[in-house]
Specification:
Layout lengths: L4 H19 L9 H6 L1 E10 L10 E8 L4 E9 L6 E8 L9 E8 L5 E4 L4 E3 L7 E7 L3
Protein name: Lipoprotein-related protein
Organism: Gallaecimonas xiamenensis 3-C-1
Keywords: Lipoprotein
C-alpha cells in the first residue's frame, strides 16, 4: 500500500502529538532533590479577632512561622494594619528548611504604633507548610 508523502507527514505529526500527550499529562513534574531545595514555599492566611473595633493608624501585625520541633523561627511577615480584619499575610521560606517529621506552627500578634500589644494568638497553630489552604489565625485581646 502506497501512502503519499503529505499523508505520511500528517500521520507522523498525529503520532508525535499522541505520544507527547501520553508523556506529559500537564500535572506536576517530579522534582529533583536540587530543584526541591531551591524551591520556595509560601503560606498564606488571614488574621482575625472577634471584637468589632478598627485599629488605629500605625498598628502592625506580625506573623511568625516556626519549626516547632526545633523551636526555630523560619519566616516572619510584618503587615501594616489598615483598619479592620481580616488582615492578610504571606510567609515565604526555603523548602530545604522543611524537614520530614517536624511540626510547623504559626503565631501572631498586633501592636500599636507605640509598641502596645493589643491582640495575640493564645497558642501556636500547627500547619502543613505544603498545604494549599488559606490559614485563618484567630487573635485574642491582650488584657492590660
Amino acid at each position: 500500500m502506497m501512502v503519499s508523502r503529505s499523508r505520511r507527514s500528517v500521520l507522523a505529526l498525529g503520532l508525535a502529538l499522541l505520544l507527547g500527550g501520553c508523556l506529559d499529562d500537564g500535572g506536576p513534574k517530579d522534582l529533583t532533590e536540587q530543584d526541591f531545595e531551591k524551591a520556595a514555599l509560601t503560606v498564606k492566611g488571614n488574621l482575625t479577632y472577634r471584637e468589632r473595633i478598627a485599629l488605629p493608624k500605625g498598628a502592625q501585625a506580625e506573623v511568625l512561622l516556626t519549626d516547632a520541633t526545633l523551636d526555630k523561627p523560619l519566616a516572619m511577615d510584618r503587615v501594616a494594619v489598615d483598619g479592620q480584619v481580616p488582615i492578610p499575610f504571606q510567609l515565604s521560606m526555603r523548602a530545604e528548611d522543611i524537614l520530614k517529621g517536624h511540626q510547623y506552627a504559626l503565631s501572631a500578634h498586633i501592636q500599636l504604633a507605640d509598641g502596645t500589644l493589643v491582640f495575640h494568638s493564645k497558642e501556636d497553630r500547627l500547619i502543613d507548610p505544603f498545604g494549599l489552604e488559606i490559614v485563618t489565625l484567630r487573635l485574642y485581646r491582650t488584657e492590660p
